[in-house]
Write a structure and sequence with these properties.
With 185 residues, this protein is α+β, with helices and mostly antiparallel strands. The protein has helices at residues 2-21, 106-110, 142-151; strands spanning 62-65, 71-74, 84-85, 95-98, 115-123, 129-136, 154-156, 158-160, 163-175. It starts with a helix and ends in a 10-residue tail after the last strand.
């Protein structure tokens, strides 16, 4: 189809150019139809769950960490079947044994963004994270990096009557350009 249209356009333009110059156009044979060629363009693939768009963390929103490091927004506000105790109610408080440091994003470093991210984290009695809530965030992916680092925190759960229990704890990450390595990802 494209080649037929191109042929017609060339014929039209050449006859128009000849008419403008006062010369007579040469006779051209009858056009031979060219069979249309099918163009096999790859069809766009819908994103799978594995390739879903990354979640952008928002203030006062609850998130869950997944095994692959991605974030999932939690829509329900209840924590079914989970009794959460305050630090005053427990016999032994929760102990953080390892707190990984989040990395700076290139965009945040380029824009000179500094500050702190405050997360409220629900540490479960079974040694896993139930959820995280952003209390104060930063732009340019720093909040998301803080959440990913918080998901890797290692801890010993709080104890009440000899049994591990769930407890909310505020976790803060400070982002200072002077403290960040230029070579960090």
């Amino acid at each position: 189809m494209k080649s037929v249209l191109a042929f017609i356009a060339i014929c039209f333009l050449s006859s128009f150019a000849c008419a403008q110059s006062g010369r007579r156009a040469k006779e051209v044979g009858t056009p031979v139809p060219v069979p249309e060629q099918e163009v096999n363009e790859p069809k766009p693939k819908p994103p799978s769950q594995d390739e879903a768009a990354p979640v952008t963390a928002e203030k006062n929103q609850d998130y869950r960490c997944s095994e692959d490091g991605s974030l999932a927004r939690i829509l329900d506000t209840d924590t079914p079947g989970e009794r959460v105790l305050s630090s005053k109610e427990v016999d032994t408080r929760l102990v953080i044994t390892a707190k990984p440091k989040p990395s700076y994003t290139k965009e945040a470093r380029r824009n000179g963004i500094e500050g702190f991210v405050v997360l409220k984290v629900l540490f479960s009695g079974d040694g896993k994270f139930s959820r995280l809530r952003v209390t104060k965030g930063l732009p340019a992916g720093l909040t998301e990096n803080a959440i990913r680092a918080a998901c890797k925190i290692e801890f010993k759960p709080a104890i009440k009557d000899g049994k591990p229990v769930s407890q909310w704890l505020t976790v803060e990450y400070v982002f200072r350009l002077a403290d960040s390595s230029i070579f960090s990802p």
